[in-house]
Design a protein that fits this description.
Blueprint: E1 15-19, H1 29-38, E2 55-62, E3 65-72, H2 76-97, H3 105-111, E4 118-119, H4 122-137, H5 147-150, H6 164-170, E5 179-181, E6 186-189, H7 202-216, E7 222-226, E8 229-233, E9 242-247, E10 255-261, E11 265-270, E12 275-278, E13 281-284, E14 287-288, E15 293-294, E16 298-305, H8 308-321, H9 323-331, E17 337-342, E18 347-349
Parallel strand pairs: 1-2
Antiparallel strand pairs: 2-3, 3-7, 4-6, 5-6, 7-8, 8-11, 9-10, 11-16, 12-13, 14-15, 16-17, 17-18
Helix pairs in contact: 2-7, 7-8, 8-9
Length: 358
């Protein structure tokens, strides 16, 4: 892969990096790729010869992944304060939406499944309602109630798939239509044993909220990346937009393409991020809620959309739907473009993908 990492920057490029946690060795391929590309906003070594405005990059581990905020062309002190606020907003949302925190609102909903209603914050209600809309839009290919199935699948090397009868016993608990929301904004899961997981949509929403906070602070040129869910505002410099590389799902050292991203969001779902091989079959982490097993038919799906939440949810939904139905879904959405790599490595794209996207 051809990158311009910060140690070989020319004197005309300033890149202030504040790395606050996590070694790259613990990150997924998508996260490493995005961080390398975004570290100084460059893709090819020849770009290092172009003088650039000051760039501040900050990183923290939030929502179970590495979150990176890059701000260009701003006063360094102001950029740091703005990034602090944006990270604080993501941290606040994590306390509401993480299933790993027993005191979170989402954990309280799951704990009361089949029994009582749970009062929730406006933010959580908004994300749940959006998740239900994407469930309906995808005819169940995207389902926020997939958590019971997630719990029985492991993706570490040496893992083996769960038995079919174990999967079958949990499938009745997966049904987005059994999520109830009343007029007071309370949420209830109709069946005992049901549980919500927002991993396919909450990170995108957090990226959108971080962008909103940064804009409230007066930041005009920034890109926020949460584990490969990205949204860009403004440009890297007057002459260069933000650039994002799309990983080849079968070659760690290669890109399928790179995008110039201006005022849009992008997310990729792929079978190469968390997987293991058992008896010659690849088992990955993107489950089809309708079968309870890893979705087949795609290697990766990249979606460009107005918001990171929409890109995040659609990338998952299209991956599950497969190339033909998935592309048809994308073509019905205004302002959305996508690229699908099917199970045989063939590429299918919508009319506006790839290239500069504004």
């Amino acid at each position: 892969m051809r990158f311009c990492p910060s140690p070989i920057l020319s004197p005309g490029v300033t890149c202030s990096l504040f790395r606050e946690s996590a070694a790259l060795s613990f990150l997924s391929l998508r996260e490493i790729l995005a961080l390398l590309l975004l570290g100084c906003g460059l893709l090819f070594p020849t770009g290092c010869k172009t003088p650039s405005p000051p760039v501040v990059e900050r990183e923290q581990i939030l929502m179970g992944t590495t979150v990176s905020i890059t701000i260009a062309g701003d006063d360094v002190d102001h950029a740091q304060r703005a990034a602090d606020r944006a990270f604080g907003e993501i941290r606040r949302l994590e306390r509401i939406m993480s299933t790993y925190l027993p005191e979170s609102e989402i954990s309280q909903i799951n704990g009361a499944a089949g029994e009582s209603w749970t009062a929730v914050s406006p933010e959580l209600r908004f994300v749940i309602e959006a998740g239900l809309r994407f469930g309906e839009l995808s005819e169940g290919a995207f389902d926020i109630t997939v958590k019971p199935l997630i719990g029985i699948w492991r993706h570490e090397p040496g893992s083996r798939p769960p038995r079919q009868r174990e999967i079958d016993s949990l499938l009745p608990l997966v049904d987005y239509r059994a999520v109830q929301i009343d007029e007071a904004g309370r949420v209830r899961l109709r069946k005992r044993g049901m549980a919500i997981a927002l991993g396919g949509i909450a990170k995108g929403y957090a990226v959108d909220r971080a962008i909103e906070v940064l804009q409230e602070e007066g930041v005009q040129n920034t890109i926020v990346n949460a584990g490969g869910d990205l949204r860009a505002v403004g440009r890297r410099s007057a002459s260069r937009p933000w650039r994002v590389g799309i990983q080849d799902p079968r070659r760690e050292d290669a890109l399928l393409t790179d995008l110039s991203l201006i005022g849009r969001a992008v997310a990729t779902s792929g079978d190469y991020e968390r997987f293991y091989i058992f008896e010659g079959i690849r088992y990955h982490h993107i489950l089809d809620p309708r079968t309870g097993r890893p979705a087949r038919g795609c290697r990766s799906v990249t979606v460009i959309a107005p918001t990171a939440m929409e890109a995040d949810a659609l990338a998952t939904a299209v991956f599950v739907l497969g190339p033909e139905r998935g592309r048809a879904l994308l073509q019905r959405r205004d302002g959305v473009e996508g690229m699908i790599v099917d199970g045989k490595g063939r590429t299918f794209s919508t009319a506006g993908f790839p290239g500069e996207v504004e």
